Amino acid sequence: MIQARVLEDRRMLPLPYEEKTQGESPDHQHSIRSIAWNPLGTLVATGSSDKTLRVWNPEKPNVRFSTDLKGHLAAIEKVAFNPVKDAELCSVSNDGVVKFWDVRSKTCTNEIKGLGDAFTLVWAPDGQTLVVGNKADNIFVLSPTRSTPIASHQQPSQTNQIAFCWSGEKIFLTTGEGRTRILTYPDFKPAFQFNVENESKEFTLNGHTSSCLSVELQPTGRYLATGGSDSIISLWDTTDWICQRTITSMIGPSSDCGLGFTFDGNFLVGGSDEGEQNSVVLWRRD
Asked: At which of 139, 154, 169 does a domain end?
């Protein structure tokens, strides 16, 4: 059984992080597009629409204790720490520039350009490669040590978000058709197929009536959660790929606010940014 609890937005868990610096107007606001913890939970990175990339000490959340990593010339869409290297950070801006940073020395260690209108980024579990997707539905495989992509894979339909399985051998791609594709990595081939009248078809997860926007794998690997613009969250059993639950208590689309499991996989949180009805919903597996 899954129990749902709606949490009031803007009145719960107020974050004391303040990006206003000396000399700025009180009305000046930064829109934070992405936030990420490092593997040890000792640092937080934020990427903003005003090109600001900051690394914070969560124990000292005032801007004067943060590190400003300069170099992006466009809005930062996504930030993510290497899952096996505590001080390696990657950021991507919507002008198609990916930067790798050593947050200890505060330096950019590598840069890759020309990736189009990029908006999503995710590391492979081993930290050796990562993938970046752009709005032209092209996905690039990158290495922190190379200045050009290892490979690129043009997708046949609108691709929204990407997640890895924990072995790193498969990736999950959400699409504008409401499906979630399961592909092998790094060759991007369908992981599962079935036959229809002697014709091989790609097996996909079909759990949404409109665009599938977000995807998250449970830490135990047992369940995969997908969220769509239909205000539905689907929970899939990865042993047989059957949808075990559909959660319909979202107020609006589970979109860029995304999905997230707790470290033990017992709780799932989903966010909605539908107009003035911003909300966070928390579910517990019993």
From this structure: 154
User: pTM value?
Assistant: 0.85
What does the pLDDT look like over 3-33, one tens digit per residue? 444 433 333 334 444 555 444 433 335 688 9
Residues 201 and 138 in one domain: no
DSSP the chain: -EEEEEEETTTSS----B---TT--TT----EEEEEE-TTSS-EEEEETTS-EEEEBTTB-BGGGSEE-----S-EEEEEE-TT-TTEEEEEETTTEEEEEETTTTEEEEEE----SEEEEEE-TTSS-EEEEETTSEEEEE-TT-SS-SEEEE-SS-EEEEEE-TTSSEEEEEETTSEEEEEETTT--BS-EEEETTEEEE-EEE--SS-EEEEEE-TTSSEEEEEETTS-EEEEETTTTEEEEEE---SS---TT-EEE-TTSSEEEEEE--TT--EEEEEEE-
Check whether residue 149 and residue 162 sit in a common domain: no
